[in-house]
């Protein structure tokens, strides 16, 4: 087994577990490959045979609609056989361990596992465990990583902004509990974005977050000034019960993205959100549906990016 | 049984004795150093040329998993591991199933251990019934059954009133209370140090203040109640500073650190290595340096193995769900030697932290290499390199962050009460 958690001994992508430490060449290759798939998704016949005869298992230990669906569509467009397993109501509740489940599915000749789990490190654990013929894609593990979401965000930024080296990007919201934010920060850093900001109250920031290479702001007025890209995070309602925040109302007042606050950013700034959105909590409807929002295109790009990741993994 | 140990490098940590010599054992005790007593006919000679002869190790925290957790380990396997590691006396925390909160359980444990004729077992009794932090245990009865101190293991006491009463009651009878300082609400189910690594890996974190605030509570309650306390497995630089100050003020306080925390930091978690899921969590580099400094200046008295054998399945889980702990009995000696080498500490000074100092905390007659002392000995090769592997470990738990690492220092013989219980 390779020492690197997600590269094989030739330095190629064996698994996609995190954007942290992902070589910039591989990252760019994924984005370029996704670009070539954009045409496919717009054709009448939307299938290409790159994954014909391969089995992709969607292992979702946590509920998800958007991510699971886009993975399923991506795999089907590549002509793979897709098996969806809603593990939240399956063997895990019958007491089977995570790795036993994986072993059983491996015995059914799986080629690829797409894993969503509420525990940080679950995808790493599975990747360490499976044989060299199986590829693991992390579709979100706990608070740790959600690399395909970050990659589709990078794809979106590149579509609208071209050069990463001149950008000022702000990530706004619950950084502490966000696997999306962590993966975005690593991907942006790798692609050479010179200034990444995180904007949140202190209760929603992890310790020493600045060590990830970000500038910390607690105030939207200062944090949004002259920003090119705004990446909004979803706010979970549990945060009120765990004493992270007093109320969604107060959160919206200080950290919700309103048209007025958006004026602080550059006039050509784009607004992104990984979904699902809480309108009136982290984002105002007027902004979400406004001309600077690229939230819907993001979803479409998600299919092309996931096709790219799967086809690259299958080729290695 | 009369045994003559010849030509060994004799080390007595307390006196600082460190020289080549012979040791004569009879009736379970050391009867003479260097000069052969009159009419001494040795039944056995042990050639200790090139080997260190020191008091058997005294470990302040070794989980034996009995009663109730035999799927993780058994007395047989863990006491075998103890003597293979040169450990001749060990204290076991009360977090068994059921917890050690009744005299019968303690007597049974002592009885089972005695019959195995391996390391001497000193149970630490539960401070509260079921370790629930609500009602006091029958401490006097437990003491009479063989408990050397009282502790909550890793279970918290949320209600400080209960902790105060427990300390008062223990102080009434002169019993020592052993506590691991960690505020349960601040720890809040965290699994890693609140620093860059937990932030990168997205792991729920335990801030340093979970330790310092609990410590401050304990220190205040010590002043209030007059109880003596032993702090288990301190982990942070700020924690060490508080202990140092409290000792300077003359509080009757002792403190230990786990050998893992002397060597490892949160960075060692790497990509979610569940063997590094320890409690307290591995902290930062500055904390580790402060723990080492605390050992040097006496703020921290002793090093323990914090032995916690875990079955493989319980570690083959996502990091936060994996059982905490690492096997340690067989690594205490080589890892202490490694620390001594890295900090340029003399062998007697280093060995004191795993022999005479912990013996004093336990209040037992052990940890000395002098005429008249019990013949509990560890004879080890200080230059033997070995690789930590499943096959090499006697403990039923193979879970250690040091798996695959080459360490130096290996026990050749272990003697308890003048009998060779390990080595040939």
TrEMBL record, chain A:
Cellular component annotations (GO), alphabetically ordered: cytosol
InterPro entries: Asp/Orn_carbamoyltranf_P-bd, Asp/Orn_carbamoylTrfase, Asp/Orn_carbamoylTrfase_sf, Asp_carbamoyltransf, Asp_carbamoyltransf_Asp/Orn-bd
Pfam families with a match to the protein in the record: OTCace, OTCace_N
PROSITE patterns for this protein: CARBAMOYLTRANSFERASE
EC numbers on record: 2.1.3.2
Residues binding L-aspartate, per UniProt: 94, 179, 234
UniProt keyword annotations, A-Z: Pyrimidine biosynthesis, Transferase
Catalytic activity: carbamoyl phosphate + L-aspartate = N-carbamoyl-L-aspartate + phosphate + H(+)
Domain Aspartate/ornithine carbamoyltransferase carbamoyl-P binding: 14-158
GO molecular function, one term: amino acid binding
Aspartate/ornithine carbamoyltransferase Asp/Orn-binding domain residues: 167-312
Residue sites binding carbamoyl phosphate per the record: 66-67, 116, 146, 149, 275-276
Recorded metabolic or biological pathway in which this protein acts: Pyrimidine metabolism; UMP biosynthesis via de novo pathway; (S)-dihydroorotate from bicarbonate: step 2/3
GO biological process: 'de novo' pyrimidine nucleobase biosynthetic process; 'de novo' UMP biosynthetic process; amino acid metabolic process
Lineage: superkingdom: Bacteria
Enzyme class: transferase
Assembly description: Heterododecamer (2C3:3R2) of six catalytic PyrB chains organized as two trimers (C3), and six regulatory PyrI chains organized as three dimers (R2).
The family this protein is said to belong to: Belongs to the aspartate/ornithine carbamoyltransferase superfamily. ATCase family.
Function: Catalyzes the condensation of carbamoyl phosphate and aspartate to form carbamoyl aspartate and inorganic phosphate, the committed step in the de novo pyrimidine nucleotide biosynthesis pathway.
HAMAP family assigned to the protein according to its UniProt record, in alphabetical order: Asp_carb_tr (MF_00001)
Protein name: Aspartate carbamoyltransferase
Organism: Nitrosomonas eutropha
Protein's gene: pyrB
From TrEMBL, chain B:
One of the record's GO cellular component terms: cytoplasm
Residues annotated as domain Dihydroorotase catalytic: 51-238
Residues in coiled coil: none
Gene Ontology molecular functions: allantoinase activity; dihydroorotase activity; metal ion binding
Pfam families from the UniProt entry: DHOase (PF12890)
GO biological process, any: pyrimidine nucleotide biosynthetic process
Keywords: Pyrimidine biosynthesis
Origin: domain of life: Bacteria
NCBIfam families: PRK07627.1, pyrC_multi
Protein name: Dihydroorotase
Source organism: Nitrosomonas eutropha
